[in-house]
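dumping this here before i forget
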Amino acid sequence: MNPLAQQNPHRRFNPLKREWVLVSPNRTQRPWQGQTEAKAAEVALTYDPHCYLCPGNIRAGGVRTDKYTSTYVFQNDFAALKLDSPRFSSDEDNKGLLVAEGESGICRVICFSPRHDLTLAKMSVADIRVVVDLWAQQYQELGAREDISYVQIFENRGAMMGASNPHPHGQLWASRSIPNEVVSELAGQREYHANSHSVLLCEYQKLEESLGKRVVTKNASFLAVVPFWAVWPFEVMILPRRHVTELQALTEEERTDFAAVLQAVTSTYDEVFDTPFPYSMGLHPAPCDGEEHPEWQFHAHFYPPLLRSASIRKFMVGYELLGSPQRDITPESAAETLRQASSRVSKA
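structure:
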């Protein structure tokens, strides 16, 4: 990489979404006078009688949660999508300006563990592997439906990311249409595949591993990297070492390695600022729309908001809302911070 980029403003291209991010490393020297927030508190209870996600408790909608003993999935009581939503399409005056259509789908909640205090960062690899297996089973089940085109599995961790309950859990939204972010990534991977006859994220994984500057951690099957085009300060992408489009296509060994890299990334995050690290994490398998997707590579995104400490976060405001995304800390610097945190975790 051109050494001038380490100290001077420059743009980086994201081929996955075909957009640019502005990087301004010179701004890291400016004084901070922005918002500060209280440090997030660790959850100490193994069982909370007032938590509607703990085993046997009554949820907000009046349904009693099963007395589950392992990873647990149930229909979201306040679902954003419903299977019985009516289908319709409208276009006021046929001008293509006021367009709406019905959308249907299925929303489920996935509790990672019956224990109220066990986040992915604290769970064993064996227990996270159970979560991975459930993700794969859910994707396979819902992806086989003719009325579902995409299964988005994600986790919002921490109140800062809008998590409504501290009990470690994720969600699954399966929709009739393909969501915007996936449509964008699909177009980018298709374009690259058509032009180079190779898989974008497979080539990217090989390049990042050979350079090493942005690699956070790796194992026999997966690589975790701060993307060259990262927008969020400590953003991480997890990539398989071989071409695989769907979660259920992972081998037994790969599923265990995926669980291990998830545990490594989340425990590393918690070490960075010595606080439960908030983030939004999502899996991106190929669409299940009945088409072949040789251009697609399975991957996972971590988008954490923390910037300088446990109480200082990055906001998408001003130029970033009106112009394009921007970051001050370079991805290379962020990766080094995460590697140092990872080494402290491994020594603990």
